[in-house]
Design a protein that fits this description.
The protein is mostly helical. The longest helix is centred in the first third of the chain and has 13 residues. It folds into 2 domains: 30 residues; 79 residues, no CATH class. Helix content is 46%, strand content 0%. Helix 5 packs antiparallel against helix 6.
């Protein structure tokens, strides 16, 4: 580097400029922070415990395991949601929350069935996962 270039880098303006550029490059590196869901008590009454048997199974049957809509989560598939243990593992690992509640990419757009979960269904899934996915 030439002497004039080194002199330019040593000026207070240049140092500030480099500092600002370095700081601004980190501005978009923040972790995703989900917004807490406000529970609608008409969907989930106070004191009610959302369970797989009473609440989640019907959601899965509507959006994920219905044979009329494909075989993504059918019995025998890699991600079999037709029984409790199949979906419980996805809840425990965080995959269900990530795909359905954060990324909103499940059900996928290419699904032959319904694609948009209701607000109540999303609340039930969220509460079920948050409470340890009880059967």
């Amino acid at each position: 580097m030439s002497g004039s270039a080194l002199t330019l880098l040593k000026t207070p303006f240049s140092i500030c400029f480099v500092f600002v550029v370095l700081l601004s490059s980190c501005a978009n590196d923040k972790a995703f922070e989900p917004v807490p869901m406000v529970i609608d008590t008409t969907c989930i009454p106070n004191g009610y415990q959302v369970t797989y048997t009473q609440d989640i199974k019907i959601i899965l049957e509507t959006y994920c395991t219905n044979p009329m809509y494909g075989s993504c989560h059918q019995s025998g598939s890699e991600y079999d949601y037709t029984f409790y243990e199949g979906i419980k593992e996805e809840a425990d690992t965080g995959t269900l929350e990530l795909r359905v509640l954060i990324y909103h990419d499940m059900p996928p757009p290419y699904s032959l069935g319904p694609k948009d979960l209701t607000s109540c269904e999303l609340q039930k899934l969220s509460e079920w996962i948050y409470n340890g996915a009880p059967e």
